[in-house]
Amino acid sequence: GFSALMSRGPPGSVPRAGNRPTHPGVVFASMGCCQPREKMDEKVAKAMYGDMAGELAAPRKKKEAYCSWCYEFTVHFFIKESDIWLCDTCKGRTIESKKTSECMARLEGSGKTGGICAKSQPNWDEVVEKKKKIFSKQRNATKVRYELTRESTFRHAASKEGLIRPFLLLASMSEHHRALLAIQLGWCPFIEEYFGDAHEEAWQLLTRKGKGLRARCVRGLGKLNPFAGQLDWVGILNHVAQTLYVPSYMSWSDEFTCDKMSRQEGNAESALVYSKKVDVFEAELMEKVSKQQRSKMNRVQVCTVAQLMTSENLRKLMAMQQARGVERHTMSLYAIDSCFLQLSRDKTLAKGQDADPVEPDELARAVVEFLSNKLEGEEEAFEEAGLREKPLPPPDSILHANFEPLWLCLGTLGLRPHSTMSRVLPVIVLLLLQKEKLKMAQLDLARPLLPQGSS
Q1: What is the mean pLDDT of the chain?
Q2: 3: how many CB neighbours lie within 10 A of its CB?
Q3: Number of Cβ within a 10 Å radius of residue 27
């Protein structure tokens, strides 16, 4: 049991798999109710179960080792389809290190060679220490307000480039979330000089050459055209909306009720920290993602969620969010569906057909963690909703970014792991979730110094 676990890793360490029995056969595992294959199309089943879409059997190869992406001792799963490994904690692509068996190397490009083994770099201990120090800092609303209001060259650059809104949303996130997004976009944040500076981290996430959000939203030939202007925030949202929801044979107005903004109008609106037009567009895009996930759930799952939502725990939680101005609809529903799918998957993996049902207090707790902004004092607010206590990962673990429900959502939507869109979409979703998290903390992007609701 436990001692066996201890004896396998380096002395005194236990792999961090977030107290979840991760399904061995899965890249994006996501699992529903007792009739998992009721009307689940094949592509989705494949995304959820990998090569075992037929039967939940044969566990996939796994390995416990340090990860060169997140610098944590974790479980890595072998992904047969793409012949690489995946760190279960940060979802980085890994490969066996040629230098040491106690660490998996990170694959930074899209290929399968040239992994970088962090453990054999001379600065391993230094990086681990720096990460621990920065991740363990207490966060509170005052500090977030400071990041939202302070001046910096990066803030000015973001204003100039029409990226001020996503810049401030990123700067107001927890370090854990920003680090996780860097890994999703394809680089290791902990070794960067600027790690720990919220503004420079936010700027890099948006504009890093070839890998930042903006670069990952440029299509085909645009990459080669030196005169194609760089995308602003509306340009990025247009790209994601169009790629995911407006197939080439449809027109924009068939899919979206808000008008598509022209380049010029997009430019003007992107220069604003708060724009009603952009706000409406973001909400509609988020609703599309939410509805698409919902459309992949089977009848049993949809009914179960509807039932859970009438429970006292979830009603209290939603009332609390609404009182703070959170758009009940899209965000809460998206969070509830995503967390429900993750919990039911974990239970199914642990016990198969005899899995216990998802309990209301358990779901409410998962939703709270998913929507948490990691601020002091958040807990008290949530205790009112009667949530169950849960063991938390160590403060210096990237597991605090609670990425699992979102990772599963990518699989449910049928995206290929580490494809461009499955690197871009989590950034977009977390940005839009961040907007609601700020409301929960009574912070307003447009007027961070005033509590929300005051004029």
Answers
A1: 83
A2: 7
A3: 25
Q: Is 420 exposed, middle or buried (0-12, 13-18, 19+ CB in 10 A)?
A: middle
Q: How far apart are CA 91 and CA 105, in angstroms?
A: 13
DSSP result, 110-168 = SSSS--B-GGGSTTHHHHHHHHHHHHTS---HHHHHHHHH---HHHHHHHHTT-HHHHH
Q: Could you write out the DSSP letters of every residue in 187-223?
A: --GGGSTTTT-HHHHHHHHHH-TTTSHHHHT--GGGG
Tokens of 29: 């595992």
Q: Tell me which long-range contacts 80-88 makes (C-beta under 8 A, separation of at least 24).
A: 80/50, 80/51, 81/27, 81/50, 81/51, 82/112, 82/417, 83/112, 84/112, 86/27, 86/417, 88/17, 88/18, 88/22
| CB proximity list for 223: less than 8 A, separation 6 or greater | none
DSSP reduced 3-state for 63: strand
Contact 388, 365 (CB under 8 A): yes
256-303 tens-digit pLDDT: 999 999 999 999 999 999 999 999 999 999 999 999 999 999 899 999
CA-closest candidate to residue 88, choices 60, 113, 126: 60
Give me the helices (H) in 193-298, please. 198-207, 213-216, 233-245, 252-255, 263-270, 276-295
Tell me the residue type at 13: S
CA-based torsion, 128, 129, 131, 132: positive or negative: positive
- Token readout for 265 is 């109008």
333 Cβ contact partners less than 8 Å away, ≥ 6 residues apart: 290, 294
Length of the chain: 455
| Cα 409 from Cα 296, distance rounded (Å) | 10
Could you say which residues of the chain have pLDDT below 70? 1-59, 220-228, 325-329, 377-389, 450-455
Identify which of 368, 404, 406 has the alpha carbon closest to the alpha carbon of residue 384. 368
Q: How far is the C-alpha of 229 from the C-alpha of 421, rounded, in Å? A: 21
Q: For strand 62-67 and strand 93-96, is the pairing parallel, antiparallel, or unpaired?
A: unpaired
Nearest CA to 412 among 425, 430, 427?
425
